[in-house]
Amino acid sequence: MTAAAASVDREAARLTDLDSAIGDADHGSNLQRGFAAVVKVLEAEPPGTPGAVLTTAGRQLISTVGGASGPLYGTLLRRTGKQLGDADRVTADELRAALRAGVDAVAQLGGSAPGDATMLDALDPAVEALATSFRAAAEAAVQGAEATVPLQARKGRASYLGERSIGHQDPGATSSALLFSALAETAGEGAAR
Amino acid sequence: MSGAETSHEGHEGHVGIVLVSHSGPVAESVARLAVGLAGGDVKAPVAAAGGTPDGGLGTSAELITEAARKVDGGAGVAVLVDLGSAVLTVKALLAEGDELPEGTRLVDAPFVEGAVAAVVTASTGADLDAVAAAAGEAYSYRKE
Q1: Considering only CB atoms, which chain B residues are within 8 Å of A63?
Q2: So what does this thing catalyse (chain B) (predicted)?
């Protein structure tokens, strides 16, 4: 989580730039505020298990972000954390299965699917590639985010732009790639780029 | 500015209405509009939850839960929302299970028209199903 927060911090301006092209120019600052709150609450009361870390973080994102990325990322982390339960340690396979449940919950909440130019375009291939390694997942997320450039946005504020949304990388897919890079970094496998 | 504002004190037995907008002034104005158009007999408690706590544009889970608790009189709470993150935040709060009062429902309705229908219907003492149905019916009124 600390790595994710640091990464969001570093890239907040870039996320907001991407969002100013097709959205309302707050994605970077919203996530920055949300993850800062996550780090603060985790430091104040460190949860005992990986599952609890994720559910606490997700709860914090829902309450502090203020934009659609809050409930979406909040749901991703909470559902993943709940799926992990209260195990003290988690295997890569267990994490992958839990993240799958989390990503499915995001798709359900947002009513979207891969190809709509949303965060799912990064999250979905990343969870698939997690079967190989954390690094492969991070790379798949970056590629998924880049693959949103030619897509027409079908969800959120960008969808009102219709064809004019084509040619822009989706900010949500980009931040999702950052989070998977942070995960790979934390797992000691290096960031995607 | 952006704080929840109860136009009427919570009455036992009446469905509460929460209006969630990305903008504090929009939420508050729509609440006033709905209460005004409902006439002199508004018994249902109405609260606005617009914008972020610092007065910016966006959705605040904190303001939404505060507003819902304020209007909850035990008969259920109908939540009407405007766009994107307002919809997703309410859905995420409902999924949490214990964040919003029991019997809170996200109502699928146009924001302004639905608010008027919901306040009028709730003030007659109708139950949550009837309030939600009345608000949703506002979608069927076409403008051309």
Answers
A1: 61-62
A2: dihydroxyacetone + phosphoenolpyruvate = dihydroxyacetone phosphate + pyruvate
Q: What is the ipTM of this complex?
A: 0.89
The whole model's pTM is what? 0.91
Q: Following DSSP, what letter does each residue of B77-124 receive, concatenated?
A: EEEEE-SHHHHHHHHHHHHHSSSS-TTEEE--S-HHHHHHHHHHHHHT
Q: What pLDDT score was predicted for residue A159?
A: 95
Q: Which helix (H) or strand (E) holds B64?
A: helix B61-71
Question: CB-based contact (8 Å) between A171 and chain B?
Answer: no
Which ranges of chain A does DSSP label H, i.e. alpha helix? 2-22, 27-44, 50-64, 69-84, 92-110, 120-129, 134-146, 171-186
Residues B93, B60: contact at Cβ < 8 Å?
no
CATH architecture of B16-137: 3-Layer(aba) Sandwich (3.40)
Other Cβ atoms less than 10 A from the Cβ of B33: the count is: 15
Please check whether residue A110 touches B, CB under 8 A.
yes
Nearest to A105 by CA among A65, A78, A138: A78
Q: Under an 8 A CB cutoff, do B89 and A157 touch? A: no
B84-96 and A92-110 helices cross at what angle (nearest 10)? 130
Q: Which of B61, B91, B95 sits opposite A63 (nearest CB)?
A: B61
Tens of pLDDT, residue by residue over B57-70, are: 999 999 999 999 99
Residue B39, burial from CB neighbour count under 10 angstroms (0-12, 13-18, 19+): exposed
Phi, psi (deg, nearest 5) at residue A184: -65, -40
> CA nearest B42: which of B109, B119, B100?
B119
Burial class (CB in 10 A: 0-12, 13-18, 19+), A146: middle
Domain boundaries, chain B: 16-137
Mean pLDDT, rounded, of chain A:
94
Among A65, A69, A112, A154, most B C-beta atoms within 10 A, so best to mutate, is: A65
Residue pair B63/B86 in contact (Cβ under 8 Å)? The answer is: no
